[in-house]
Amino acid sequence: LLARITARDVTPVPAAVREPGPPAVKSTPVVKSVFRRARSRLFTKYVALFMLVVTVALLFNGIVDALFYYRENREALVRIQREQAETAAAKIGQFIKEIESQLGWTTQLSWVTGSIEQRRFDALRLLRQVPAVTELAQVDANGKERLRVSRLSMDVIDSGLDLSNEPKFTEAVANKIYYSPIYFRRESEPYITLATTGARRDAGVSIAEVNLKLIWDVISQIKVGDHGLAYVVDAEGRLIAHPDISLVLRNTDVSLLPQVRTALGDVTRNFATALPEAKNLQGREVLTAYALVKPLGWLVLVELPVAEAYAPLYAAMERLALILLAALLFAVMAGILLAGRMVGPIHILRTGAARFGEGDLSQRISIKTGDELEGLADQFNDMAAKLQDSYTDLEGKVELRTRELRELLEQQTAAAEVLRVISSTPGELSPVFDLILRNVTRTCEAKIGMLLLRDGDTYKVVASLGVSPDVVDHYNQRRSPALSAGGLARMAEVRKTNHVIDARATEAYAKREEFRVATVELLGARTFLNVPLFKDDQMLGFIGIYRDEVRPFSDRQIALVENFATQAAIAVENARLLGELRARTAELSESLEQQTASAEVLRLISNAPGDLPQVFDAILANATRLCGAMSGSLYKFEDGAYTALATFGMPPAAAAFFRQGAIHPPPGSGFARMVNEKKTIHVIDARETEAYRDAEQFRVATVELMGARTFLNVPMLKDDELLGVIGICRDEVRAFDEREIALVENFASQAAIAIVNARLLHDLRAETEKLERSVAELGALSEVTRAVNSTLDLQTVLSTIVTNAVQLSGTEAGAIYVLDPVTQEFRMRATHGINASLIVELNTTRTHERNLRRYLEKAADHRPFIMDVRAEPDTPMRAILLRASFHILLIIPLRDPVSGGLVGALAVRQQEADNLFSHTVELLQTFAAQSVLAIRNAHLFAQIEEKSRQLEIAGQHKSQFLANMSHELRTPLNAIIGLTEMLFTNAQRFGTEKADEPLRRVHRAGNHLLELINQVLDLSKIEAGKLELNLETASLHPLVNEVIGTARELAERNKNRLTVEAPSDLGAMLVDPMRLRQILLNLLSNACKFTTKGDVMLGVRRRVTRDRNWIEFSVSDTGIGMTAEQQGKLFEEFIQADSSTARRYGGTGLGLAITRRLVRMMGGEVRVASEAGKGATFTVLLPDAPRDGTIP
Amino acid sequence: LYVEDNDDNVYMLKMRFDVLGGYQMRVAADGAEGIRMAAAERPDLILMDLELPVIDGWEATRQLKADPSTRDIPIIALSAHALVGAREKALAAGCDEFDTKPIDFDRLLSKIRRLLDK
After folding, report:
1. H or E element, residue A840
2. What span, in angstroms and rounded, lies between the C-alpha atoms of A422 and A568?
3. Which residue(s) pair with A718 in the sheet?
4. Nearest-CA distance from A1164 to chain B in Å?
5. Considering CB atoms only, which of B19, B83, B101 is closest to A986?
6. pLDDT tens digits for A823-840?
7. Is B82 on the interface with A (CB under 8 A)?
8. CB within 8 A of A229, min separation 6: which ones?
């Protein structure tokens, strides 16, 4: 534990010592205070620890001792008390027993036998023997007192006192013995009555009065400690005996005391029960023991005051405290001693360490404890020694480094100075070079330095140090090219510093190279350093440092010179750039001014292309100002005359003169010359001109009013056209230079552009306006036309027309009236901008229509006219119109172009009559024409609708008729065909053999008629649109086979060969198979009919054209064929190649017509190719269902 | 039983069956008579013209097919109407077969035989 406390306590201390850094002096008090605090803490801890250990040990021991001692002592005391109590109890018991037994003797005699004297004698003896008995009475069995012997009174014999009812008699008879309660005589002596009876029946009872003084004696003799005492209580807890007799005499009941109560409660059980410590009658805390007096049930209690009982214990504790104190003193002393021995060396260590920290490394810590502390001190000493060594070493190094740094600093200061000079005097090179040379020679410990820059093909000295002007001149006057050879050329090539240790010993010197010889002989140099200045790849020059002795330059010196060389190169380059920049800036600022002026003019032109005066003012002002002229003027040239548009800086009189109006240039004037030559006129002195001498008015005005001497007139030209002139003048004779002339010419061309632009803009605006108008009109017209063409609803068309007419013509409201062809009344059919109530009012005014007719008829020639309603005669209509502010109306009659009759009118409202332009009227006429067209269309359409309806009814009638006719024709044909067939098939039976041929002809004619009826019906159904196609997907091969099967019979009739040509993978198509069969059979039957002993071929194949799939069926024959003329009519109804054909070949002439109609219904086409006598080919193209399966 | 109002047609067909032999033909001149005769005489098969006086062929067929006693007698409609839908109309009225006039005798015979074989 100690070790741990020490460790924990000591560890932070070195940290506290180390923490304060230099300066060391300041840290000392801190260290000391830390020391003191730390030391006292450690010391205190040691001492406290010792004390703690000793105290704890002693305290523990003492407390345990006291505890046991207390318990044992208490038990011992209680035991002693109990023993005393028991002894007393035994004595009391013995005393009573003895009296009992004595009494017993007196009851042995029978009253019958013994004499009373005898009894008296015995009684007296008893009194003598037992001093405690003061009186003895004997009672016979009947309770009669027979004898009484007393110490205090006379003996009484046969007193006859009847005691038979006394308890002392009855209790004794009943219990053999009787103890009475205690009673006192003479207020001081306790007595008890004791009665006993003999064994015999007539023995009677002996009653003794017993003095219990003896008990008191017994009790009084018991001594417990100094203040302990004993007392006796009876079974009820009344005090019987007590050292303080007064308590007994007062008949004190002590049963309420806890110890007594406990003892009484315990009587019947045992006597070992520890009684509680409780207060006695005097109120003192007591320790009590007790014992039982056997025959009487009394208790003997022995008590000892607690204070007395524990007195030894307290004494022992006092002793313990004393010992503890002594031990503590010892511990403190031991602690102080031990801690002192422990802390002392540590303190020395710390002080030593602190001094090391302060830098006193020479001192040594001296501890001779021979333990770990001494070892620690030795380590400290070692460390200090090592530190001392390394400090010494460091100081040397620092000194060295400081020296190096100082040098470097010097160089950098020099470099910085150079840089500062470079930046503060840009372009000024010589101060920079001088500074560089000064620094370089100083640092390099050389006397001579030169800086040479390239000048053409040689080098020129631009700065020198330690060189006489003669030598510099010598260098600079040598113009021989030195670059192509020698050390400098090599240096330029290798781009490296040339360090020559001994110039005399070099090869170059031996070869007498010009520069080297100069170096050696003029400068007297031995060791020298040439450092090149480079910019990019070009050597600008070099720095030369020369020593007059052979002593090489150090690396650092070379590096320094190189560094300065770089700076010099930068300075040279900077100076060059700066020079360029200045030149460029000067140029720029000059041209900038001009450009700004031009730009301003251009901006004006582009911003306000039409605003010429502003542009001209700007041009003239700029031209005058930039050319340093006094005043200027700008003229427009138009239609052979000049007009001043702008003047600048002119005296008012001159301005008034030149701005007087159009100037027609008089011949010989400058203005006239300009018109002819269209070239710049530059007059140096106006006074010296011919025109002035000839007193030409404008020249005179120029000179005298304007005060001009030198003037410049520049034409404004567009292509070769003169648009105007700009003139500027000075009031002195000073010619304008080229640049100024060019500038004014530039301004002149800008002015020309502005004029041209303005012209173009004006034209453009006019064009645009026209175009916009046309576009709007065209838009409206196209809308109207579209309405007329797209809808037959007259109302829509007329509304569109009136709306467009009103909007486009800029009128406010309008209406279209249409003449009803039946009632011949004008009705308002469409309006725009007229409110509904006015429309109603106008429509219900009966005179309105009549008036309108009158107005329209006024315009007999049906031309548009303007009606001033205000000037009309007063009618209800006029009132209505005026109320609605319809003051002026433009009315355009609508005229049927065919009949020329009036069909209606277009009326628009005008606010004022003179607002109408001719193009408005034209436009409205166009709309009027459209309206007429729409009205005509509507009439026509109504007629067409009526006709269609009639046609439809007729068609229905026709279909019905055909159906009925077919039925009515078939019925008799049934009989005809049936019966003739029967007759020639059963000729024998009917005997009609001879009529066979006629019958067959009748039968054939009947069949022909039937076929005709069928085909007419088909045709009519197709025409009526009642034939419907039952489309289904049909495989082509089975269908073709079926058709061929049917056609074979036909082919055989004319002995034709029937062939089929079809690929095996024809597949299926979506078609009405019945109708397809009908088509093919039709064609095949035709082919067979017109071919004899020839070939009939049916071909089927798939074809693909552009975007569709087709099935092509072709029927070819080698029969009679057709001419082109015949082919043309082929597909018409009831047409055969010629009228004789029907007779020769039969047929109805409807087959091909039906075929073509069916094919077309299917979305296909049928074609024929033939020549007369060379057979025919019919081709049917039917669309195949597209791949996605929809019906074509 | 042949229900037909046109004498020529009756004559023609009766003649042809006579010539053919093996068939016995009774004739009714209008629809009402046709119904009556069919109920009274229970023919093996009825040839029914459709455009008939008193009761037309369609109505007569409907009534015959509605009567349990005549329901099983097969009926072939004979019509001079060749328009699309005539056949469908006849079958809808209850006819078992349909043929057009003028009659193709062989075709009619084959239809008769097929119905009787059933």
Report:
1. helix A836-844
2. 9
3. A721
4. 23
5. B19
6. 777 778 888 888 888 778
7. yes
8. A219, A222, A242, A243, A302, A303
Q: Inform me whether the pLDDT recorded for A16 exceeds 50.
A: no
Q: How far apart are CA B109 and CA B22, in angstroms?
A: 12
Q: d(Cα A838, Cα A959) in Å, to the nearest integer?
A: 54
Q: Where are the beta strands (DSSP E) in chain B?
A: 2-3, 27-28, 46-49, 75-79, 97-100
Token reading at A377 = 């001190």
- What does the alpha-carbon distance between residue A362 and residue A345 come to, in Å, rounded to a whole number? 20
How far is the first Cα of chain A from the last one, in angstroms, to the nearest whole number?
Answer: 114
Higher pLDDT, A979 or A792: A979
Read off the pLDDT of residues B8-62 as tens digits, 9 standing for 90 and up.
889 999 988 988 888 999 999 999 999 999 999 999 999 999 888 889 999 999 9
Contact present, A542 and A491 (Cβ < 8 Å): yes
| Beta pairing, strands A1068-1071 & A1032-1035 | antiparallel
Q: How far is A977 from chain B (nearest CA, A)?
A: 7
Q: What's the rounded Cα separation, in Å, for the pair A432 and A566? A: 12
Beta bridge partners of A647: A633
- The rounded distance, in Å, linking the Cα atoms of B109 and B116 is 10
What is the predicted ipTM?
Answer: 0.81
To test the contact with chain B by mutation, choose from A960, A971, A1013 the residue with the greatest count of B C-beta atoms within 10 A, namely: A971
pLDDT at B39: 92
How far apart CA A838 and CA A883 sit, in angstroms, is 10
Q: How confident is the model at residue A480 (pLDDT cuts 50, 70, 90)?
A: low
Contact yes or no for A970 and B19 at CB 8 A? no
DSSP symbols for A383-450: HHHHHHHHHHHHHHHHHHHHHHHHHHHHHHHHHHHHHHHHHHSTT-HHHHHHHHHHHHHHHTT-SEEE
Q: Are A1181 and A1112 in contact (CB under 8 A)?
A: yes
Query: Which pTM was predicted?
Result: 0.33
Average pLDDT of span A664-669: 82
pLDDT over 70 at A268, yes or no:
no
Task: Find the residue in B nearest to A1011 (Cα).
Answer: B102
**Shortest CA gap B55–chain A (Å):** 18
Residues of chain A with Cβ-Cβ distance to B19 below 8 Å are 982, 986, 989
Lowest mean pLDDT among A15-29, A427-441, A473-487: A15-29
Q: What are phi and psi of A712, to 5 degrees?
A: -135, 120
Per-residue confidence (pLDDT) for residue A3, from 0 to 100: 41
- As given in the structure block, the two tokens for residue A998 are 């006629």
Q: For residue A967, give the chain B residue with the closest CA.
A: B80
Query: What is the token pair recorded at A340?
Result: 């002192």
pLDDT in tens, A417-473: 777 777 676 667 788 888 888 888 888 888 888 888 887 777 888 888 888 888 888
A–B: how many Cβ contacts below 8 A? 67
CA A397 from chain centre, in angstroms, equals 61
| B80 neighbourhood in chain A, CB within 8 Å | 966-968, 970-971, 974
Residue with tokens 């502005």: A754
Instruction: Report long-range pairs for A107-113 (Cβ below 8 Å, ≥24 apart).
Output: A107/A196, A107/A197, A107/A198, A107/A199, A107/A203, A107/A204, A107/A205, A107/A206, A108/A198, A108/A200, A108/A203, A109/A198, A109/A203, A110/A200, A110/A202, A110/A203, A111/A140, A111/A141, A111/A146, A111/A202, A111/A203, A111/A204, A112/A202
pLDDT (0 to 100) of residue A25: 41
Does the pLDDT at position A1137 exceed 60? no
pLDDT for res A858:
67
Residue A627 has a pLDDT of 84
Contact A500, A527 (CB under 8 A): yes
Per the CB < 8 Å rule, is A975 touching B6? yes
Task: Indicate the residue type of A25.
Answer: V
CA distance B103 to chain A (A): 6
Q: What is the mean pLDDT of residues A788-795?
A: 71
Tell whether the model's pLDDT for residue A710 goes beyond 50: yes
